[in-house]
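Please, structure for the following, as tokens.
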Amino acid sequence: MQLRQLVIVLGLCAHPAVSGARNPEPSTSDTWEIRAGDTLIHIAENRYGSRAYAGFLEAFNQVDPRKLQVGKSLQTPAF
């Protein structure tokens, strides 16, 4: 298993209840429109209450976190 895959898997395993993260904010949408300054960590914290889900968003949307484009939408499915 490559390091990047391992990081994504570990990120998926870091459930907020286990990691001590705050409760996620209720989501009104299953998509997130990328704005200037957004990062996957910021989006994960906002949508799910934990930065641990950034790797999930990266894998689910098949995006390079260094190349997020303003105005594009990411899928942010509910759990």
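Helices lie at 3-13, 16-19, 40-48, 54-61. Residues 3-13 form the longest helix (11 residues).
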